Amino acid sequence: MTSSRRKFLTGVGGALALPSLEAFGSGNPATTRCLIVGNPFGMHPEHFFPKDFGSDFTISRTLKSLDWLKDRLTILSHTDHNMVSGHGREVSFLSGVLPANAQAFPEKNMSIDQAMARHVGAQVRYPSINIGMGSGVRMSWTANGVENALITDPQQLFDHLFLNLSNEEKKVRREMIDRNGSILDTVGAQFSQLQKSGSKQDSERLDQFATSVRELEQTLGSRREWIGKDKPTFDISEHMNGGRTIHDNYNAIFDMVAYAFETDLTRVATVAFPTNLKYTEVEGVTRSYHGCTHNGKMEDVTNELVAIESFQIAQLSRCLKRLDAIQEPGRDGSMLDHTIVLFGSGMGYGGTHSNRNLPIFVAGGGFKHLGHVDTASPNGDNMPLCNLFLTLMQRFGIEREEFNTSTGTFDLQYG
């Protein structure tokens, strides 16, 4: 393969983090959504995992704010990505694949949220939204192995979701899409030329890229139509006035996510609790988040860590109560019953830099929930977390039999 052709393929690959053609089919008649919430340092295991198993488990200290949701909750013990422990591996949280190993997989280190976003495609204005309030959690990766940038400010998220373009901005946006369409025509011609002269391996790669080009053509057409449609209105002033504490910011973020689901602006959202938040605004916390993870088993420092983690869960719980209060027209159950909620981390426990026994739970989604489950095999091996991801993807309406490092599915029934 010549240098120019290699450069061309790299350029196309880097530009095509796109929905698959399946997204342009009829889809499921019943809309399913997915909310994924994660943090960088895992959870203190003694306070996250319940002491007993089964559906009648006793809620743990960290999860206390979810007590109202016990019958729609599945907590998984002994599941992970089977990686050697240490910092830097938590980036595999939603994929099971490290970026350095991505080339060995057909979809590289694509994360589950982006697989779902690709499935939804242009059915909604935003196939997915990825939110954080700082750095520290790298959760979302495209099918080309590119990390999705986070929206890191509530006002920025509001502008993205709810601020309409001016007529002049709409004109500029349409012209940009039309120019991109012309570029695709040129790319299509290059595909034909390269396919004639390339090797068999080159031809297979070009076929994959050609499919992506066709998808992008359809996406650009749909995006052009979305420009002319006004966004729903939303008021977050109650959260944006005054000092804007950590509580205000996360209330605003989660309220906007709930409303974006309700108005079908998007069906996939990730929210990351980063490393650098000022958690000293949380009652009882005087130290940094990272500092609390290295607590030396000192009770006072551990209590501060559990306060931080309990705050994270309480913010999510508040959002889930909001979703549970929304009755979807013509459907049984609340919006929460039609929203897959996944919480977790790519690190098991920051205090030991462990990447094993990740703190994972699933809520809502219409599943027949199991309470607290030990997912280890009879010989003591932890279950691949991608088995759960495959089950969640199937619930979302994606028909596939494997996802990255999965070896099967997790037995979580729905319907």
What does this protein look like?
The structure is a single chain. With 415 residues, the protein is an alpha/beta fold. The chain has a single domain, classed as Alkaline Phosphatase, subunit A (3-Layer(aba) Sandwich). Helices cover 38% and strands 10% of the residues. It contains 11 helices and 9 strands. Helix 5 runs antiparallel to helix 6 (200-227) and helix 8 (246-262) runs parallel beside helix 10. The longest helix is centred in the middle third of the chain and has 31 residues, at 167-197. The radius of gyration is 22 Å and the shape is globular. The relative contact order is 0.21. Mean pLDDT is 83; it is low at 1-29.
List the SSEs and their pairings.
Elements: H1 3-15, E1 33-39, H2 45-48, E2 73-77, E3 79-80, H3 112-120, E4 129-132, H4 154-162, H5 167-197, H6 200-227, H7 237-240, H8 246-262, E5 268-272, H9 289-293, H10 299-324, E6 339-345, E7 360-364, E8 371-374, E9 383-384, H11 385-395
Parallel strand pairs: 1-5, 1-6, 2-8, 3-9, 4-5
Antiparallel strand pairs: 2-7, 6-7
